[in-house]
Amino acid sequence: MALVQVSSNKCSGGYQKVFEHDSTELKCKMKVAVYLPPKAENEKCPVFYWLSGLTCTEQNFITKAGSQQAASEHGIIIVAPDTSPRGCNIEGEDESWDFGTGAGFYVNATQEPWKTNYCMYTYVTEELPRLINTNFPADPEKMSISGHSMGGHGALICALKNPGKYKAVSAFAPICNPIQCAWGQKAFSGYLGEDKKTWEAYDATVLAASYSGPQLDILIDQGRDDQFLSASQLLPDNLIAACSEKKIPVVFRLQPGYDHSYFFIYSFITDHIKHHAKFLNA
């Protein structure tokens, strides 16, 4: 699993790097951003995985969120992959912004023509940690996951489907109940087919309702002025109700005046990294 360095920039005492590799799961070249804090020069560090939202690449988070300073202070490696396979020449992959390229939805597709390449769930939970643990001073026992919007959905399902694998999980404006919203229904019908029962395996609200694993402390920030909240794409109340029923602790913060953008993420990313550090550095 050879990694080719694409860029490297000194940042907050460490290095923000981008690498390219041939993915065995996605059967294409993929880019992944890796922030190495100063601590990584001498010892193994925990790893915080960040999953971005619709239309994003590995670049959005590393250039807009301002995560590096807090990661440097807490000695945490940040790994930010792309949001879908790229350049697979699948008919229709570039036709819409919320399906196909830039919109992998962190599922393993079962339908033609997507199932050969669109296996983002396995890429994020298995291939990527193997790649990172092999090539960087990462502590394989200490990983956590976070994300925004579609990536918040991805972070939540990865944590809920793999009890104990991630020490912490958080999300910004996640798509909490995709089987009940337009974005999720479009993506899931395309990637997973028309049998809605199969969709439940990738829905955080459904997964929370049946969760039985070690305690998972969830932090969610949501902008009150988020246009996708009012458009019923995010549905956080459904997830909160499911977590409450199962006694899964959720800190849900509705932030007045904030929208769905990276300005919102920038404003609270330090809180999220502190939340993760509490569990990763315990």
UniProtKB/TrEMBL annotation:
Compartments annotated for it: namely: Cytoplasm
Please write the reaction equations for the catalytic activity of this protein.
S-formylglutathione + H2O = formate + glutathione + H(+)
Record keywords: Cytoplasm, Hydrolase, Serine esterase
Q: Which domain of life is it from?
A: Eukaryota
EC number(s) recorded for this UniProt protein: 3.1.2.12
- One term of GO molecular function: S-formylglutathione hydrolase activity
Q: Where is the active site?
A: 149, 226, 260
Under the cellular component aspect of Gene Ontology, which terms does the record hold?
A: cytosol
- Its predominant location is cytoplasm
Any one Gene Ontology biological process term? formaldehyde catabolic process
Specify the enzyme's EC class, one word.
hydrolase
InterPro entries, per database record? AB_hydrolase_fold (IPR029058), Esterase-like (IPR000801), S-formylglutathione_hydrol (IPR014186)
**Protein family per UniProt:** Belongs to the esterase D family.
Q: Which PANTHER family match?
A: S-FORMYLGLUTATHIONE HYDROLASE
> What job does the chain carry out?
Serine hydrolase involved in the detoxification of formaldehyde.
Q: What is this protein called?
A: S-formylglutathione hydrolase
- Give the originating organism: Oncorhynchus kisutch
